[in-house]
Amino acid sequence: MDFDLSWVLWGLPIVFVLGWLASRLDLRQLRIENRQAPKAYFRGLNFLLNEQQDQAIDAFIEAVQKDPDTSELHFALGNLFRRRGEYERAVRVHEHLLSRGDLSRADRHRAQHALALDFLKAGLLDRAEEALRKLEGTAYESQALLALLAIYERTRDWSQASEIAQKLDESGHGTFTGRQAHYLCEQAATAPPAQAEQLLREAIRLAPTAARPGMDLAALQQRAGDCAIAFDTLSCLAHSAPSSIPLIAKPLADAALAGDFRGPALEILLASYELSPSLDVLESIVALEPDPAVARDWYVKHLEREPSLVAASKWLAGEKLEHEHFHPHVQSALDHAVKPLTRYRCAACGFEAKQHFWHCPGCQAWDSYPARRVEEL
To answer: pTM of the full predicted structure?
Structure first.
């Protein structure tokens, strides 16, 4: 049977026309999708600027569905979910990004960092730690190390915190020796006496002008019955950390009374008081003064130099009033009024407390509490 070439001549134009029509339909569909995706994207931005996060999320989801290969839309969507507190959805978005084989190296690191933030905000600290560890050697390494440091401080894992602080110090991201000294003091608080002393001496070596290691070492020595050694430690600390003498004053006075070093202690405290009057130094001078009448006169001397309701209340407590039967009521009112003035206040967040903190329980800042009371600030 002979093959009829006329069918080929008729078929070629038909195939060409069908192919042309198909390409036109594909281009038209592509143009429609490309128009719809930017519209959804800009609509989402508009909602975001107007703080309409629910509508912004819906618009970004629509944009992602139209163009699933756009990583920027995924990042925007994941960040929105995290800000909304929808951490599970944020994790799914960033894990989906990490599963893509076509993601660039920079975007992969960015997605890993975003995933670590999701876990951190959700309180999944073990998973956050694992995700942050994977950022070593990337552009996000310093941010990851700071986040890891916050995790270890929060969980009181002081040895790991010390390791991270050492890395940050070596990489030039600030000075962390003071914080490392605090970590050693925290470890010493739960260690046996011999090991605690070694840790505290290492802390003093790292931060020789810091008050806490010397104060903790002196407290350890006094508990062991070495009052003379404890007094020597505090005396040296008073010279190396003069701005912290208001904190050192009471333990110095206690060690002096326990070991009969009243004279040398008074000499140190009086010299400090002359340079910078302080309520805590004043109280320690009063405690060391053998004559009660002379001790009470110190409150009047303080009032001559500094207007102080606390000192006035202390002085009035030992005075005889004309209407003495009203004295307890007046004294009670004064004591109530001065209570807030005897607190310590964090310079970073304003959190107030009866005791001095090295690590603020409000904002987690280190060394943010001045050595002076609220009335003296």
So the answer is: 0.75
